[in-house]
Design goal:
The protein is flat. Helices cover about 80% and strands about 0% of the residues. With about 280 residues, it is an all-alpha fold. Helix 3 packs across helix 4 and helix 5 runs antiparallel to helix 6.
Amino acid sequence: MAEQTLPEVTRAEDREKPDSAVVRDALGVGVAVGLSGFAFGVTSAGGGLTLPQTCVLSLLVFTGASQFALVGALAAGGSPLTAAAGAFFLGVRNAFYGLRLSQLLALPRAVRPFAAHWVIDETTAVALAQPTRRAARIGFTVTGLALYVLWNLTTLLGALGAKALGDTDAWGLDAAGPAVFLALLARMLRTPTERAVAAFAVLLGLGLLPVLPAGVPVLAASLAAPAVLYVENRRRARTQRADGQRADAAETGPRHADPHDADARGTDAGDADAQHTDAPGEDR
């Protein structure tokens, strides 16, 4: 009886998760990630963007990986079109997040355009981790608000402090953005297929970096996902065909003797022996 009631108790505790616990978790994520906006401000200013341009990027784009990709490509000498294309493809993932969150949050239509601006990795992760719709809404809102305010504030501080720091390359702050993105991505790579996609993307990006213009290797690295999925589907199809062939061979192979058939044969043999034994008696 204890094993049957334990799952019910666990689900009841999940449903009764207090709002304060959701707010605490959301603020932890928002504050921890929001502080990395300082690195973006420094990197953007060091890459040649003005203070207004840097702040507008954080206000309107508000997706860290895309922002770092944009300023990184521009700082490396890439064209604005190529840099914008790389940032766009990195931001496409947020559209898929929105498809899932639209069902989970079920926000009013009037609120959805504003909430869409906060659909990023962190808000999605916090919302999906909640047991109820109410908790998911609270987690999404608190994470988005805390992260948006802190990210823009630290972006401003980083851009203003870039001049005081001098050469930003000497501080290694240009690696802060990719490091934050990789830290967030590493926890999401749970299956062998996902890890294979990430590894192949790294190989494509690094391998094409010396031969392609700045920003283009990022676009080429996006081909890792369909390539790995194609190979995975081919491997799965071969495995299924091999399993089917083994199953067919087992069905058409030599059949084991049926005990009932053996009994029947034994009965027939016994009758024949009896007849053979009775035959001399009849002669006598």
